[in-house]
Specification:
The protein has helices spanning 11-17, 38-71, 87-152, 154-161, 166-187, 199-237, 240-276, 278-290, 294-302, 312-339, 344-368, 370-418, 427-430, 435-443. The chain is mainly α.
Length: 460
């Protein structure tokens, strides 16, 4: 199989393609791209399920850590004002984790943009291929209609004018047969006419899915960015309610990050299998969807010297017939016009028709060559297997950093907000935290009661 121009499987494609795969029974699955087979589908689902396993383990670890923190803390001594040791480290570790999450968000924005660029390149290649195929159909239809109109009008009129000269009538009828033969040959060149598969429809479907995928990732990235920023703001302002709300939001974003990681991993693995050897799968799928012959598809998808042009015979016969018609019209102009002046007008109209037809024919020959469509095929593969795959890997890195950062933050935030001091200093006098120490102090024989700043003594 010949690779499209400018496309070579990248190192990431080779690396991901070499990863082992297994179905639900843990039996090895070949790494060839076969999305229609159940074993291969199970292998990709198992790759996605690894992210679910990671989510479950992280939630269990966070739950155990928080239960241990809440239930196994040593009681604070009465009247203790100093924070427990290690409180500053907990806060700074939470801040560092959130900053790592912010860096991962930047990576996610870049990966989302790269993936969108790759899919846009795929859509553009499909649209250009659709334009080429439509141009071929349009040129063939136009030439057939022009030749049919010439047979029905000018050549018929010319036969009526040249009725008295048998040899000239025979030449005119020969030109008619040649024109009909050219029209018949040209109709076989519109190979995409009537094919149910439309590159335009495929491009529109791909763009539709990509638009919602891009928007979903933008919303996820913005949500995580807001969670990180408001959590940092809550830590800076020492606002308990804000930190508690952001803790709940962090748990939600953690679940979304692990879920996106599973989708990205399965998509990247499947895409690497496709990109390692795309020609066979694309050829079989296109032949199944279009019903075209393998000779035509091999010519356009492979485009090398080993594959001959399936339209070469039709093109050669059409070119010879057009040249014969042109020479016959020139002979009729030399022989018939001096004797039949009324034959000049249909002959001039026929020559104009043939000149336009020959120009369109040369344009058709250029469009039917495999270079154009093969170049579109290569551009589609580069967009899908280079830019889109690279973007998926950056999104995978974003999800990994996000999951790690949010998991660390969820373990640190409860310990951090537990160390926040009360917002109102007067609560030290009337609040419940100091009610027991004050009552205990009253029962002891002490010479005097110490007063806290900002507190009023009650008269006895």
């Amino acid at each position: 199989m010949g690779a499209p121009p400018g496309y070579r499987p990248s190192a990431w494609v080779h690396l991901l393609h070499q990863l082992p795969r297994a179905d639900f029974q843990l039996r090895p699955v070949p790494s060839g791209f076969a999305p229609q087979e159940q074993e291969y589908q199970q292998a990709l689902l198992l790759v996605a399920a690894l992210a679910g396993l990671g989510l479950g383990l992280s939630l269990i670890f966070i739950a155990v850590y928080l239960i241990r923190f809440c239930c196994c803390r040593p009681p604070e001594p009465p009247g203790s004002k100093s924070p427990p040791p290690g409180g500053g480290c907990v806060t700074w570790s939470c801040i560092a984790a959130l900053l790592v999450g912010c860096a991962g968000i930047g990576i996610g924005f870049y990966g989302n943009s790269e993936t969108s660029d790759g899919v846009s390149q795929l859509s553009s290649a499909l649209l250009h291929a659709n334009h080429t195929l439509s141009a071929i159909d349009h040129l063939v239809l136009e030439m057939v209609e022009r030749l049919g109109e010439a047979v029905r009008t000018e050549l018929t009129t010319l036969e009526e004018v040249l009725t008295q000269r048998t040899e000239l009538v025979a030449a005119t009828r020969g030109a008619r047969r040649q024109a009909e033969a050219v029209a018949q040959q040209l109709q076989g060149l519109a190979f995409w006419r009537g094919v149910p598969l439309s590159p335009l429809q495929v491009a529109e479907d791909v763009s539709f899915v990509e638009e919602y995928r891009w928007l979903a990732y933008i919303l996820l990235l913005l949500l995580e960015l807001l969670v990180c920023l408001f959590t940092l703001l809550g830590l800076a302002k020492q606002s308990k309610w804000l930190v508690i709300v952001m803790t709940v939001m962090s748990l939600l974003v953690l679940v979304l990050s692990w879920g996106s990681m599973g989708l990205e991993a399965a998509t990247a693995v499947g895409l690497s299998d496709f990109c390692s050897s795309p020609d066979t799968y694309v050829l079989n799928l296109t032949q199944e969807e279009t019903g075209l012959g393998s000779d035509i598809l091999n010519y356009y998808f492979l485009c090398n010297q080993a594959v001959s042009n399936p339209f070469q015979q039709r093109l050669t016969l059409s070119q010879r017939a057009l040249a014969n018609i042109h020479s016959q019209l020139q002979g009729l102009e030399r022989e018939a016009v001096p004797q039949f002046p009324s034959a000049q007008k249909p002959l001039l109209s026929l020559e104009e028709t043939m000149n336009v037809t020959e120009g369109n024919f040369h344009q058709l020959v250029a469009l039917l060559h495999c270079r154009g469509l093969h170049k579109d095929y290569g551009a589609a593969l580069r967009g899908l297997c280079e830019d889109a795959l690279e973007g998926l890997l950056f999104l995978l890195l974003f999800s990994l950093l996000s999951a790690g950062a949010l998991g660390t933050a969820l373990c640190s935030l409860p310990r951090a907000w537990a160390l926040f001091p009360p917002r109102n200093p007067s609560a030290l006098c009337s609040g419940s935290r100091l009610s027991e120490p004050l009552l205990h102090a009253r029962l002891q024989p002490t010479p005097h009661l110490r007063s806290f700043p900002g507190c009023w003594r009650r008269p006895h």
